[in-house]
Amino acid sequence: MQLRNIAWAGLKRRKARFGFMLAALVLGVGTVVALVSLTRAMREEVSDELDRFGANIVVTPKSRALDLAYGGVAVGGVTVDAQELHVEDAGRIRTIPNKRNVSAVAPKLIGTAQVERHPVLLIGVDFRQERGIKSWWHIDGRMAQGDEETMIGAEAARLLGKRTGDVLAVGDRSLRVAGVIGATGAIDDQAVLADLHVVQEALGKPGAVSVIEVSALCRGCPIEDIVSQIATVLPHARVAPIRQAVAARERAVGQFTRFAYAVSGIVLLVGALVVLTTMMAAVTERTREIGVLRAVGFRQTQVARVLLMESAVVTATGGFMGWVIGTAAARYAGPALGQLAAPIPIEPHMAVLAIALAAVIGLSGTVYPALRAARLDPSESLRHL
Amino acid sequence: MSLVHLQNVSKRYNGTSVPVHALRDVDLAIGEQDFVALMGPSGAGKSTLLTILGAMSPPTSGTVTVDQLDVYRLSAERLADFRREYLGFVFQHLYLVPYLTALENVMLPLAAARMPDAEQRERAAAALERVGLADKHARLPRDLSGGEQQRVAIARAVVNDAPLLLADEPTGCLDSGTGAEVMKLFLRLREEGQTIFMVTHDAAIAAHADRIVHLRDGRLED
Fold it and tell me: ipTM above 0.90?
């Protein structure tokens, strides 16, 4: 009979107590694994989502007299004598060294016009590019395509009395309303959007562009680099990052991380306390048995090893089960709890981390009771009731 | 030549407001193959003397020598080795490990010695045979009678061929018939060369010993 046989026999004898300890470990490790998996996936998704969440770089003409608020951000001037950008400038942005990080380049011409006897904000856009930076739009209908369709904001639709499928006269053209944009709280609500060329024609500004919104997927690359590269290819333009968007993304990701760490810390602390109290109770319960072992010649280190082996079996099992349950919980509950679209991957290396984590919790809760028990005088242990 | 020699052994407990002198200047020599019975009323210090002799609790003063080894000069871990090599214990309440079989309980001192499994089994089986329990080696303590449990405890005490067997009220929890059987076993062990030191309050049981020593108020009496 070896020490491991004694440890194993002890485990089998105290199934309920060690089962409780196992449950605490599985719960603790499982929660941490689920939270870490969920948070990592959420960080990825939030990061991607925020990258898609509108433009994060705005290109405007250098010379302008007035600012116009658009979409909550300051964009270029629209005064009569202001210089305009040119539609070819949008193409140049696609030539920068970091062009792979540029997901959308959306040129716009902004002006006011009489549409069916109502003064409205008329915006010329490239609908295909606009889709890339306005993913949050709720459209009654669909995104417009080509130069024979238009989209109108909720407020403008009410003012003009138009619905999806109606025809709207813009300049000399009759455009079909492909979709009505749900209320966004932004300037889009009052706007009529049409193809850039149509608006250029309507406003008498062929080839002109007021502003170019750029969406750069800059996770892992500094947005300042992209700004600098655009400024190089467009020396006549002012290129500005929307720092709020970047800061908001970093703040959101940071909050997720801090939340996960805080909850994980609390769960681990509770788990460690449960293990400690369980082991303390288990050791106290068997004080006399430990006294017998010491009396028949077991060294302190041998007694401690028996107790630590028991703990090691429970913690390794708890760690592995915690990983399985935590990963399963994240995979199946994640989409509902975290509103995640992408599946959470199974990461085998996390099993090793989970077992290591359980071992740290388990052993930190076992070492003290084990050493205390091993150091007792055998005669004291045998007197224990 | 004495196997065991206690010289001026005193034990004082300071746990209460007034110190309790459990043993006072005890001198005792036990020769090889002696069967010594220690008698005395409750609280006389019998168990204290046994735990000191068993290397489980150090005296406040005095020396304990076994086989010319000054026991309490050993480190805690060497004391464990000493208990395994020199002593066999039979406790009053047996203290069998409840989740180990009779054979495994007997193997415990050998497991501590890191002996190979096969040798452990062979020696434990032989010890059980010596106490007449060869056919019950696979039973858990709860499936054995009181007398059988006592014999398992004795087998555990003799399995490592330790020179000194210490027994604390070995018949205290047994009926008279079973107690007599245990004494027969002790006498046989003594004939086989075992030195035995037994604590008892039963004069009839003590009468089986070669020598009876009395302890009263922590002092040995002639």
Answer: no
